[in-house]
Amino acid sequence: EQCIDGYIGWQQNFKKNMTLDATISTEYFNAKMKQKEIETTMWKDFHILPSLTFSYKINSRNSLLLSLTSERKYPPYSSTTARKLYINAYCINQGNPELKPSLSYQINTNYVLNNKYIFILYGKSFPDYFSQTFYQSDKELKGIYKVINYKKFYQIGIAQIIPVIFSPCFNTTF
Q1: What global pTM score does this model have?
Q2: What local confidence, expressed as pLDDT, does residue 110 receive?
């Protein structure tokens, strides 16, 4: 395995109510596997991973936060090996040497109202997303668990955080 990383960051305050924080991380990753004198390249990737956070304090009680984050997610090592683990007579956990790391990009918009209520709008994108799946073997009566890559996975959503006080001794957040 060969991994080379680079990182640069910058932070700036504008007036008294705005802040911008930006970073860029780069990564080159090259992984090879040698089995019985045959060398195979598992991963050979170069990625730029940006991160950006902008905060704006509208007034003393309300604020807005915008953020973009990105990161690299690596599968567990045991999932990338070419092995079979027999769970019982009917189930196998099978490794996947072709499994690739995944990227994660997330964008968030948070609005804080009255320093109490938070409203969130977010979106996520996962190129080369990996997850464990279960399928029936076509050769024998066995179920196979295997971690595989999906081309892309998306997630969008809205959320809110609302504190509720029932009494001085009991409160919760929805």
Answers
A1: 0.78
A2: 97
